[in-house]
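Hey, can you fold this one?
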Amino acid sequence: MSRRWLSIDWVGNVLALGMTTSLILALQWGGSVFAWDDRIIITLFILVSLPPIPRVIQSHLVVPLCRPSQAGILLGLFLCWELYIAQNGHPMVPLTLLQNPSVSGAALSGFFVHILFGVASAYLPLFYQSRGASALQSGIDILPFMASSVGFVVLAGLAVKRIGYYKVWIVLGPWIAAVGAGLLTDGDLLRPELLIGWQIIIGSGFGMAFQNTGAWRHWPKNFPIVHLTKFICVSVCSHGGSGGVCA
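Sure. Predicted structure:
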């Protein structure tokens, strides 16, 4: 039991927690609790988004997270530590997995899809409340979005099971959702009868991509360390949702 506890990447967990907390606090507090140019917000962003990531780590990434001169302090430390411990222990996130386009592609797609879901589920009710709806009524008003999301999760899942091809949904879903979200930016198209249709478009696009970004059950049977690829995708997706709401 003691060996198992010692084999846990405690340093990596602490760095990841600090990095995530700094980012979420900066996005949550910026413009509300503190001004964006306040030293507290600037410090939080510096922890996540400035000093360099070594090139040796950049070489492990299929899609670079940022330019070497723009990585964060905690992000840089986290990646350095994970690269070091990969040679001397059990890393929390093996960086070599990010060389696989299935992992990096699924993670990036899930990140942006969950940004959309976080923004829509948080701000659509607020939009209706700004028009005089109660909290309960605003929840009812976004049922088209939620119902279409769930419905297309089911339909896309059944389609994938039948035809065995899931990548089309990951590509098509965000495009459809982007069209619906774009329609919400036109004030002339925000009449109640039209809003239902735009919600359905957004929800259908989200539902298509939501489940299939984590379609690891369709990856090759001999795919290495499947449980860690799940962790990467789920973690990146959750950051997208929380970051979208906070921003």
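The mean pLDDT is 75. Let me know if you want another pass with a different chain boundary.
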